Amino acid sequence: MGLADTPLTTRGIAVRLFITCWVIFAMHFATNSVRELFPAMSVGERLSVDVSEYAGMHPDLFEMERRGWFINNNPGASFVGAVPYAAAAPVVNWAADRVKARRAATGAEAPVFDSPWPLAREFHRKAFARGLDIKLGLGAAVTQAFGMAVVSALAVVVMFHVLRVRIGSDRTAAWLAVLYAMATPMLYRTAQLNQNLMVAHCALVGFVLLWRPWDAGGAARRPRYLLAGLLCGYAVVCDYSGLVVVLVLGIYAVIRWAGSARELRRWVDLPLFGVGLVVCALVLMGYQWVCFGHPIKPAQFYMPPPEHGYPGMGWPEFELMWRTMFDPRYGLFVAAPLLGLMFVGMFWPRGDRRLMPRREGWVCVAFAAAMLLFCSANSFGYIQYNSGVRHVVPAAPFVFLLAAGVLAHMPRGAAIAIGVVCTGWTWCGAMVRDVEMGRGILEGPLAVVTGGPRLPWLTTLERMGYVSGGIWATVVIVVVAAFVGVLWRVRFGGKAEAVAAA
Description:
Layout lengths: L9 H18 L9 H10 L14 E4 L3 E4 L4 H31 L11 H12 L3 H35 L2 H13 L3 H4 L5 H17 L13 H14 L3 H18 L9 H24 L6 H4 L15 H9 L5 H4 L6 H4 L12 H19 L19 H14 L2 H21 L10 H9 L4 H9 L7 H16 L15
Antiparallel strand pairs: 1-2
Helix pairs in contact: 1-5, 1-6, 1-21, 2-3, 2-5, 3-5, 5-6, 5-8, 8-9, 8-10, 9-10, 9-11, 10-11, 10-16, 13-16, 16-17, 18-19
């Protein structure tokens, strides 16, 4: 974008970028009790993947006779959420017990939950009756703010370091990294524990560890094959779409190794990558053995037939492929129009001006295509109409790397305009989070334009009658914006200077 370098140190920018994204992600916390929340709380509290305490609270929980209740998906995202919840569980349980005791003493009735969705109203009624509403709400907040939001903020910092090396400008890289956080599905999906976004983070960092873009122009070093293998493997622990990560980055690891200078190749490199995969495979197999009594068969083999009638994996379908890209409720390029620049980035700019080297650029294209093909073979994708963009999210960082090269070389005014409009679009979606209406993703911008800004957790409190509607969302946004503004002007250790307004 042709911006001058910032006087901040690179480390200072990275720290500020992390804090900024962490706070903004946490501000957009959504109270939805997603299926990944229940094992996170159970593991964090009791080191158990049995979620019998929450039996019947979510349609994606099912019972195995004489074994317990489990979720119908892989546990990787839940394990991440279990870490902060383990620390917070005593406080969460104390607060939940106090509220339950007060309700029992006063005979309090469940407040009316003024939601347009019958299932949401039923969930609230059931959670209140079982005394789980406070515990689940606080658990969702802890696992999001100190789990999902932290991991996503770290992923933004990784993207910043990749961009700064390739572009040569810390400031331009920082602005593009902000777009990665705000103008892609990351903001929308970080609102709660999400296995698809966790797969995206594993794929991005694994790719970067193999690529090592910061070695360009300096002394090259061996890629981190073991760590990359662990991350690729953990992508599968999060979701079986992680098999795409293993396939594409596994091939890239072989090509990268074969193309390295002889002094940078060791016979142990690729076996180390394999060791990382095997370790994570053993984790997943152990989980499946504990839950279902068989190390190979996944949860989908045991769960009851879904009521929606879609069978799951099959042959790729062109209609589902098209919807995954362009459906008005969950299409990737509708939810995040900025990523549409990928189609330009595949061909322009050319030569040395390209953001991505030719080989790594083709890896990005191959990853996006493979993930799209996988999603088009998973008929569960048809039910994303009530959740928004989800299954194809792991492709987002690779698509963004192609789109970022276009933004970095187009006229500054055009890049700023595109960035602002696309950020506003995705931000509205993250604030409103209702795609089931007739207008799909467009519902978010229309609701914000006509009713003002909102935040998902505040919307829930308003529907429960705990706070009145009005300016609260605006107040929170203004306070956070002021904090971020001060953050970028504070000196760290007396070395960094404030960023001049531009």
